[in-house]
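Lest this sound abstract, we think one record worth quoting, the chain in one-letter code, the fold tokenised, each line plainly labelled:

>
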Amino acid sequence: MAEVANETHESARVSRFLVGLARGLAGALLFSIPMLMTMEMWFLGFYMDRERLLLLLVLNLPLLIGLSHRIGFERTATWRESARDAIVAYGMGVVASALILVLLGVIKFGMAPREWVGMVALQAVPASIGALLGRSQLSMQDEDDDEDDSDPSQQASTGYLTELFMMAVGALFLSLNLAPTEEMILLAYKMTIWHALALMALSMMLMHGFVYALAFKGSHSLQEDTPVWHAFVRFTIPGYVVALAVSLYSLWTFGRLDDLGTTEAVLTLVVLGFPAAIGAAAARLIL
């Protein structure tokens, strides 16, 4: 009986993992389509600095491991299992990106390896993140709730550093969509310092409102004896700083700050920080 029970448990575990893979592939396509169909992302694969691209690829792996530990294809008990899921997600990002780019005619036979390898590698970063996000957003809520109830390790409250990490993931995902585009620089040229200050204030207000004030599903509630400013100082301001840091890295990676003066660079950072802040707040709600 014990052997039959073990085989049944292992079969169910494999089945959940395969379903997770299918969701991951769907997530990779769903969350990466905007970048797969963006011209700036195609051309960046041709000419962007290879050292910066390599750094992005290297940094993406620990990010995926941390994200997998939180919301992988299946519940993971060890970091080794999370690393396995992260590598699988990376591979799915590569496959999905290459397939779609070939079907769209962006990658053609006879292209130099430097061109198509760089293009696929760049697109695989958001696609791999989307593969892991697919488990969180495409799974059945009741099924996940049952898994959470049966696994006490998943019932622990989220730590402060984990909250900041998830905000960084959300900020990175949206900033990768917009950082390569010329519109970020164009908008910065249209703005004044007063526009920038107002946009920064609006970004933080929206971050705080999304998570605490507007009662969205998944939002956080404050205890009755907690001052209103506590969450703003503890989470919203640090979260906005994280969003700005991620935006700065994204702009630097894609070379968008190379030819800009200090004022223009700061304004461009504030512009990209707006969607990055929204992504950071959204990550706290849905991940």
Notes: Residues 147-157, 215-219 have pLDDT under 50 and may be disordered. Residues 102 and 108 are 7 Å apart (CA to CA).
